[in-house]
Structure to design on (294 residues):
């Protein structure tokens, strides 16, 4: 019996790891208990690239049959570039990121990476290529070291430290009595929204994926934190194909393209300055935001 203990204990560990990581992803997307049944095709290919061009082509989608959420949405993110999506709450912004991660299949049109339809790729290889910094990061009841290393469990201690430094959370960790060994999460030290987001950024830096999804927190931030997050976003999105779901326009004024969504459709697109010149929905949102900041 004792001989069995080691392997069984290990299996228990593997089971918990898998369960945790699924729960983590589901929570990230607010999907708990709602997971759709996505199956790999028997002929599914393994995605293997460091340069990923993403294309959404004439996407139609609804979570339920009788309610269409996205209508004829088309845009592309060239490899290494950044596209930001803005629009009122419920416009369908986060839905785009869920579809790119393939939590659901589209009802019409196609999403492809380097010309390959997502439905022709294995889910594991697709997801290995995407890093997500969600609105509200879920931390495991474990050490802060574990929580960062989760991005790449084989990373060395030095690499975890480097990632923490790049995500501007190293000094904070060093200030804790137990440093990287501090337990965080529900049953440990509670971190602020901004600190949790930095842990997610450090995780993603370690994972080093070619595609990045950044879902900006809706909550208002003080201008110091906002500037810090902008700087981190810039650092982490450089040379990665990036989709930003934005709530504050100031974060995205240097995106390569901004999409303005309304009721599941793209109603305007362009650079920040082009959109201001169009004097449409985006220009209105910008004026409103400036007013409220004043
Ligand atoms: P926000 O800015 O508030 O985050 P959003 O633009 O990101 O909003 P989505 O989360 O994409 O909006 O949601 C678009 C629409 O789809 C909403 O009307 C929402 O109620 C609906 N929706 C989202 N998730 C589901 C789901 N799992 N099942 C059914 N409807 C959903």
């Amino acid at each position: 019996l004792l001989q069995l203990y080691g392997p069984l204990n290990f299996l228990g560990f593997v089971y918990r790891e898998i369960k945790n990581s699924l729960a983590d992803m589901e929570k990230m997307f607010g999907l708990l208990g709602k997971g759709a049944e996505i199956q790999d095709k028997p002929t599914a290919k393994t995605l293997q690239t460091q340069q990923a061009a993403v294309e959404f082509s004439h996407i139609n989608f609804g979570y339920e049959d009788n309610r269409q959420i996205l209508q004829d949405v088309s845009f592309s993110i060239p490899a290494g570039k950044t596209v930001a999506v803005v629009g009122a709450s419920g416009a369908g912004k986060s839905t785009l990121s869920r579809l790119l991660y393939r939590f659901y299949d589209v009802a019409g049109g196609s999403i492809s990476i380097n010309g390959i339809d997502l439905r022709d790729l294995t889910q594991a290889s697709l997801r290995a290529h995407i890093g997500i910094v969600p609105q509200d990061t879920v931390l495991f009841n474990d050490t802060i070291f574990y929580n960062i290393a989760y991005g790449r469990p084989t990373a060395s201690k030095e690499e975890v430290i480097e990632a923490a430094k790049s995500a501007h959370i190293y000094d904070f960790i060093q200030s804790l009595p137990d440093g990287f060994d501090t337990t965080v999460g529900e049953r440990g030290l509670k971190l602020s929204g901004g600190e949790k987001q930095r842990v997610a950024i450090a995780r993603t830096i370690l994972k080093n994926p070619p595609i990045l999804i950044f879902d900006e927190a809706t909550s208002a931030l003080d201008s110091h934190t906002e500037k810090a997050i902008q700087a981190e976003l810039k650092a982490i999105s450089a040379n990665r194909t990036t989709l930003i779901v934005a709530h504050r326009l100031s974060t995205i004024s240097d995106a390569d393209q901004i999409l303005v969504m309304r009721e599941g459709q793209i109603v305007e697109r362009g650079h920040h300055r082009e959109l201001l010149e169009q004097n449409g929905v985006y220009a209105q949102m910008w004026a409103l935001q400036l007013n409220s900041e004043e």
About this structure: Strands lie at 54-61, 70-77, 82-87, 108-113, 116-117, 130-133, 211-215, 241-245, 257-262, 265-270.
